[in-house]
Structure formats: C-alpha cells, structure tokens
What we know:
The structure holds 2 protein chains of 2 kinds. By secondary structure, chain A is mainly beta. In chain A, 0% of the residues lie in helices and 46% in strands. Chain B contains no helices and 11 strands. Chain A binds chain B through residues 32, 36, 38, 41-46, 49, 87, 93, 96-97, 99-105, and chain B through 1, 4, 6, 31-32, 34, 36, 43-46, 49, 91, 93, 95, 97, 99, 103-111, 113.
Amino acid sequence: DAKTTQPPSMDCAEGRAANLPCNHSTISGNEYVYWYRQIHSQGPQYIIHGLKNNETNEMASLIITEDRKSSTLILPHATLRDTAVYYCIVKWREGSNYKLTFGKGTLLTVNP
Amino acid sequence: GAVVSQHPSWVICKSGTSVKIECRSLDFQATTMFWYRQFPKQSLMLMATSNEGSKATYEQGVEKDKFLINHASLTLSTLTVTSAHPEDSSFYICSARNPGTDNEKLFFGSGTQLSVL
C-alpha cells in the first residue's frame, strides 16, 4: 500500500473552511484515496473517496492533484462537531478484497 | 449508510478471564469483517480479517490462539480475547463492507473499550 503523510494537527475557526492536506507520492494508478475521521472513543466514520477526479458529497469535497501525488479534504463550513482525527488512506482495490491500513492522521481542532 | 453494531461498548474483566465482543451488520450481509485494535493516542491497527464460513486471516504478530474470531453467519462476527491480561486492555473496533451499493466503503462499529484488571 502507498504510504501517506499528514500533518499531525491543525486548527480551524468555526464556520470557516477546513483544508486538510495529504501527500501520497507513491500512489499507483489503481489506488483510491479514502478519507475517514474518528471522533474520540468512537469508530471511524467514512467521509469520501476518489480515484482521479475531484469528488463532493454532503460532508466534504476531495481535491486530488493531477499527478495524484497529493490530495486535500475540504470541510466547507467547519463546526465544533468536526473536531476529530482525520485519516487519509490509499488502497488498491481488487474486486471485493481489500483492507484499509490507517496511519497517524491529522487531529483537527475546530475552535469557537 | 449501512449500520454496523458492536457490543458491548465497554467491558471490565479480571485477568485470566475471556471476553467476547460481537459485531453485527444490521441491514446488509457481510462476507468479510475486519477487527482492529487501538491503544490510547495511537492509530488503528488491523488485527485480522474475518471471513464468513472459513478461518480468519491474522496480521503478522497477532496471536490467533489468543484472539479467537468466529464468523458463523453473514451478519455476525465475534472476537474472543482469551485469558485476558492487562496488556490486552485496548479499544477494539470491527468493520464491514456492504457489498451492495456501498461496496467501496468500510463501515465501522462504535468500538469496545476493554479494561483488564
């Protein structure tokens, strides 16, 4: 699996956009970029994933660079409830067989 | 999205006893479930992949005789920590993938905090 690099922590003001970067310079052509988050003492929550194109859903947007070596997760209007550890993961998908390996993630703290 | 239920949420046990943790997929059938362990202020570590109707696949360094996994049905996987010791105290999390429309996502249970005295 390609390794990812994320800043250990970030701060964001409530109501502002939170932009969380992730480097995955060794990503291969078949590997997807996944983002999950974990609020303290809970199971991880799926946010979004993508391969090449930028993606948007009700929770966030995922911007993947053209060379796919990095990506940014954007929370458009951060709230206090968005304080969590955010994990960027890359994973090769082979049919129905794959597993996710978590790195250290970024602790995002949303401040009032 | 799909729902994965994990029970119990927390358990305290005496050293030497065994503890069983259940993981259920509530609205879908999961042929594969995953078990993770998380120590305080650390990331999730994959312990094993649970396959319905067959033996689990354990990650390197995980003792299969200590962490017994049973996946007897398409909606239930169990993790039994046998002869638990204080160093087994951790947050255990299961996950499953809905092979239907949510095939690309893993859904996680809420986790089980195990404390061994």
